[in-house]
Amino acid sequence: MRSNDSATATVTIAVSTPDTAGQDTPTAAAAPARGTLVSRGALLAALGVAAFSLTFPATAWALEGMGPWTVVMLRSVLAAVLAGGALTVFRVRLPERRHWTGIAVVAGGVVLGFPLLTTLALQTSTTSHAAVVIGLLPLTTAAFSAVRTGARPSRTFWIASLVGAVVVIGFAVQQSGGAPGRSDLLLFAALLVCAAGYTEGGRLARHMPGWQVIGWALVLALPVTVAGATVALSTEPLRLTAHAIGGLLWLATGSQFLGMVAWYRGMAAIGIHKASQLQLAQPLLTLVWSVLLLGEQLPPAAPAASLAVLACIAVTQRSRG
After folding, report:
1. Would you say 80 and 221 are in contact if contact means Cβ atoms under 8 Å apart?
2. What is the pTM of this model?
3. pLDDT in tens, 34-90
4. Quick check: 219 and 95 in contact, CB under 8 A?
5. Cα(271)–Cα(264) distance, integer angstroms
6. Whole-angstrom Cα distance, residue 297 to residue 20?
7. Which of 267, 251, 114, 85 is nearest to 195 (CA)?
């Protein structure tokens, strides 16, 4: 569909000129154009990570006045209203039939699964602990990408990703006294569904703008989220405090929609596996927010664990493939 394929229309195609041997040779303008595209993609992915880093603190704020099911369903409904309005205003046509399976995976992973599982986990886990456990998400996403898209990152890339994963697992085990707790199991399940949603979203963003990917996923999930919100509001307590409202609004606009728009567009530009590793910075950013906004006391190992996985970003971004 031409309107959806416009997401990739900005890619500059190298112009070839015949060399002395009569063969085509790409002009020198192609390399700078490619570099600009990669830099822009990395910036968009980084903006997505920055938006996501506020998700756990915003969820903790929302939980001060709402039940977990209310938070999850209302954030998705509000984001769907925003996305649906944009799709209507710009008269976006329905995606091609072949894309709907991928959109359903995005809806199940990042619209429903990840928000619900992490919100339930945060009822018994601090945001700082949850943030470092979620540091496994980059490796999980890269693995899904390799299976789903056939991407083949270099050995250096996988070594750096595994080092970050080992640090995160060690932190989680140390904090839980040697055995994973209920919140850890919920967080690990959230990793799987979110990685699947990220991978499919990044793949779809090569065929349609990133905001349309998450927009259609939110609209597709709307019947479920509206029904869920109706039930949750009738069964869970509700206190509309400033924190609760502010947290919910950020979850709907920043985490669920605008952050996903930047994230998927960035993944389409630089590749799913490389963009995913930028998310290694997310635990560190979330730890900072948890101190500034929530007044949490960080576990002694949390900053060191976050810095260790953050150090892997440079290696993964410079690796081949």
Report:
1. yes
2. 0.82
3. 667 778 888 999 999 999 999 999 999 999 999 999 999 999 999 999 999 999 999
4. no
5. 10
6. 68
7. 114
